[in-house]
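Internal ticket #5521
Category: modeling
Description: The requester needs a full-assembly model to guide mutagenesis choices. All entity lines are attached below as received. Residue total reported by intake: 997.
Assigned to: D.W.
Attached entities:
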Amino acid sequence: MSPSSPARRLSLPLLLGGAVLFVAVVALLFYGVRRSGLADRDSLPSALIGKPTPAFDLPLLHDASIRVRAADLRGAPYVLNVWGSWCPTCREEHPILTRFALTKRVRVIGYNWKDEHADALHWLEQLGNPYLLVLADTDGRTAIDWGIAAAPETFLVDAQGIVRWKHSGALTQAIIDNELIPQLVQLERAPAGASVRAAP
Amino acid sequence: MIPRAAACLLALWLVLAGAMLPASAQPASDPTPLAYRDAAEEARFHALAAELRCVQCQNQSLADSNAQIAHDLRREVLDLMHQGRSDAQIKQFLVERYGEFVLYRPQVESRTWLLWFGPALLLLAGAAVIATLIRRRARALPPAADEPQEW
Amino acid sequence: MLPELGQILLILALLVALLQAVVPLAGAQRGHLPWMAVARPAALVQLALVGGAFAILTWAFVHQDFSVAYVAENSNSLLPPIYRYSAVWGAHEGSLLLWTLVLALWSAAVALCSRQLPAHVVARVLGVMALISLGFLAFLLFTSNPFARLLPAAAEGGDLNPLLQDPGLVIHPPMLYAGYVGFSVPFAFAIAALLEGRLDARWLRWSRPWTNIAWALLTVGIALGSWWAYYELGWGGWWFWDPVENASFMPWLAGAALLHSQAVTEKRGSFGGWTLLLAIAAFSLSLLGTFLVRSGVLTSVHSFAADPSRGLFILIFLALVIGGSLLLYAVRAPGLGPAEDDPRRGFAATSRETLLLANNLLLACACAMVLLGTLYPLLADALGMGKLSVGPPYFGTLFLVLMAPLVILLPFGPLTRWQRDQPSRLLALLLPWAVLALLAGGLAWACAPQGRIKTALGVAAAAWVLLGTLRFAWMRIRSAAPGQRLTAEMTGMLLAHSGVAVFLAGALLVESLSVQREVALAPGQQLQIGGYQLRFDGLDQRQGPNYTADRAHLSILRGHREIGALAPEKRRYASGGQVMTEAAIRPRLSGDVYVALGEPLGGDAWAVRAHVKPFVRFIWLGALLMALGGLVTATDRRFRRLPENP
């Protein structure tokens, strides 16, 4: 092919369209690169935010004859922390969680997930028990209703039983200060008796 | 003599038993394979599990993953099938708890129109361009000649 | 001492690459011969330098020098010797050095095998390849130094991921890179043509074998990855539409379109613009793939460890190379069409030109679809639409829809004449075979134990492609003069298209006919699957070089007659305690019996997962045929004799 043909140009809409597409893809990839540095880039947002907690009915770890239901926990907000003695990351977050629990800002309730009874008790003995009470979910059925995918995970539930916040992964002081506490402050400011009725 | 030897053997056995404990503990689980009622149910289960995503893994289907939560969810899906729920209902059940992330086949809704219809639109647009090009080039055809062509 | 030498060699290579880029390109622009002549020796020197650096890194691994951080992270004193070699490319820094080495090898090959090309073409091609090399060497030296020291040296290494301690993984990355990176040759050639302002059919003829060879190697690389995933990952899948797999598949699709488009442009002078664009696209997709795997942008079991600063570097490099190429294309390409008075320019609706346009369109749409699906979750996240997953149900469905027309049109391609042909002639040639293919499909429908529709479609499609391809061979053998019947190019085409047929059969039939069962077995118990019985004979322990394994022994029976034995294992690796499942496979062309161990269930019983996978080997056999076809085409004498007049 020789350049003897009259000068042809690529049509303007095609050029413009191509340029826009190129810039869009590069921008998207740039966004991706920025996001890849964040620690929580792989974590799933909870599907329960703004919805009532599942209607659970679980025994206490320390006394299987006592059962706790969702309705029993209503009246004040609480933090639900999912853990297991088999989970090494839970061990890492334990001191930070304990420090937070000791501030007595909000009830901290433990959710022992898929654990052996003896192992769980032994773990708490070894490390200390920061929880007001510990629910025991041995077969994991209720955990599915909560949308729990791994341990540790932490939920914040308000006084009416609506899930307000969830964090996947170990709690750090930064997350408590920058995310959990502001959510708590919002809850404490909101008028009591909010709109949505929670499940019994 | 004999009791001492027995004590040594017992100690040795205890040490070996301790050495054989797994390096990292696992959550309590029931590894028994799932029991299907018949071949049709098994096929339906595999097909459904292949369309669901393991919520904890780096991109594996529910059928393939060995993660603890995947075991639990597979059991749950089978239970729901036994309860008589349809595939759509089971998917809805999981989406309510884990979000749309759990579906490997994205639902066809306004935010996925580009995804589902984009390629077809591109094909149609491309076909239109080609049709125009052919029409233009057909006009430039030299008169018919049946000379042998190089392949 | 040696690692520092390795680093120095890389710095020197960077300088040589700079020289190889700037001087020849400037020389070609000004017509200054001595400057253009710098290109060839520079490429050879660069190969020596990068090769030396790679050899030093290999030496560090073989001698287990844990004072080099990269070696300490990816090796271990218990690692078997052969894996010490492949551990060199087991993680980011080393695999990047391999990428750079492969690029240096291709550049040197171009330098040595381009005697027929005029100096300014060679100068530009090697100059562009040097620019790419420059980018990668800079990336290595500034963000991913494989020779960084770890002081004090680690006492023991972190170990190569046990998944990578496998023969398949030894050759898969080098093959893949050989293909990916090989597309830099047609890319450089396209840029050279655009810079020159003209696309000479002679030079295009020179570039065709390079494209074919690169594409063939990429085919082998992808097939190896698929085969490895099948036997190593323990659940019998052979393709997962994982982002990293897609990252290698997209250049493959573009490359397939490219090698067909190059054939048209070289023989008939048409579609030069499309050919150049496809050449740019194929290599751009290779670069994009390299970016996606290393930047942490996508979630995949496959990706290397993420580091935003590295991701940013490659993204900027990517944007510059691709953006620059496309800009050059937009400005220069329109002037490169065939002359208005070229008699070969026109073509009718029924002509090989039309079929090739359709081929390009369908492959391009498939490629765009894969890109869209791979990036869509990121797009949804960026636009605040939540976390979506796009997986095999999406990719598989749309890929089938887009490839169906291609499969139907495929046999027509080689039989159709250029510029103008009669539909009636083609139908007369192929209709009997279409009917035969449909009958074969019908037979399959009747005989299939399950998945009848898919089985019928798979058999019909594969038969159609195979019969149509053989029809062409038959026609050539009967009608052409002896000695002129089948050129290497035609033979390559026959092999590759037959490979498509074999692949279709494997991919569709394994999906429709495979059977899977997971049961608890105690010693002595049997499980029934797909016409076989599997009897669990017992369990023993085995000690490997760096692992201990629980090994189960199973006998395969057919009609109560023993026909084989399998020994799947569960291995625990000493260095990190990781537990891996090693599946046991009885491989046959007609179908594999595939067994993997689940968990122990107490009391000697184990969960056992068994699959029967009919015709799964056809998948890789088909891919190998396609690759062979690409290689055979490249040997055609046509490419070594360049014609006198353009």
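Resolution: model delivered.
Comment from assignee: The first strand of chain C starts at residue 515 and ends at 521.
Ticket closed.
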